[in-house]
Amino acid sequence: MFTGSYVALVTPMTEARALDWGALDALVDWHLEAGTHGFVPVGTTGESPTLDIPDHLKVIERVIQRVAGRRPVLAGTGSNATDEAILMTREAHAMGASGSLQVTPYYNKPTQEGLYQHFSAIADAVPLPVVLYNVPGRTVVDLLPETVGRLAAHPLIVALKEATGSAERIVELKAQVPGDFALLSGEDGMNVALMEAGCVGVISVTANVVPAALAKICEAALAGDFATARALDAPLTALHEALFLEPNPIPVKWALAAMGRVEGGLRLPLTPLSESAQAPLRAAMAGLGLLEERP
């Protein structure tokens, strides 16, 4: 189910930091037209840390309603509290989500056994496919391949978004999981290399800005045409880099605002993109003709 280009969707906000439902609807429509293969609302890119639970669930519900079954919606319902993750995942299941994205618990630094029990408890509690999410750079805990292998034995734990940026890690993971377990790239700058190593798709920040390009890259890679995938990805190198000059989603929201697709509001403690980071991002976007785009 979870293959191709999934957008780690931003949560549009006004400059007053209110949720912007009209802009969210327009983004979903744009992605559907551009060929995005799936949606991931309210992950890190969707500012999950600063949305309270009611707003968090409202965004997921709005995306599910707008997509209306035309693409899978992988709801970001992870938490560093297992009971809270179960609560939000139950709600997402009732709304009709296709699956849930479950990040490794941040800050409390569980052991590998704690990680195993956390994800198993969620999968046991809610009859919804689970995609694990390993991003040690943010959570300060690494979900190791052996633990992923144990979790992959659960019938509802079906995929992993791996954001260590290591092709060697993908090879290690493939040796631990069954053939139908989906590995997904969580590192935009290495999407093609990671798909060559065995990933079957991406959960992408860059797809917010160039959705059609990411969809075509994934389609070429899934067809085994990595030469074409690399050729399509090469012009995006500067964009991949510039979108992570400051913590995500600060740059990507600035980029979408520059394209006229969102107002660009952020909730504290996130602050607007610095002037020093704006110049390279603007240059990368101008090189792709993105600054001329409008809704």
Number of strands: 8
The total domain count is 1
Structural class: alpha/beta
Highest-level CATH class = Alpha Beta
Count of runs of 4 or more consecutive helical residues: 13
Low-confidence stretches: none
* Cα-to-Cα separation, first versus last residue: 30 Å
Biggest sheet, strands in spatial order? 2-1-8-7-6-5-4-3
The average pLDDT is: 97
> CATH topology, what is it called?
TIM Barrel
Q: What general form does the structure show?
A: globular
Strand content: 5-15%
Helix content: 40-55%
> What is the CATH-assigned architecture?
Alpha-Beta Barrel
Order of helices and strands: EHEHEHEHEHHEHEHEHHHHH
Kindly report the name of the CATH homologous superfamily.
Aldolase class I
| Rg for CA atoms | 18 Å
Report on the biggest sheet. Answer: 8 strands, parallel
What topology does this entry show?
Layout: E1 4-8, H1 21-34, E2 38-40, H2 53-67, E3 74-76, H3 82-95, E4 99-103, H4 112-125, E5 130-134, H5 136-139, H6 145-151, E6 157-162, H7 167-174, E7 182-185, H8 191-197, E8 201-204, H9 211-222, H10 226-233, H11 237-242, H12 250-258, H13 275-287
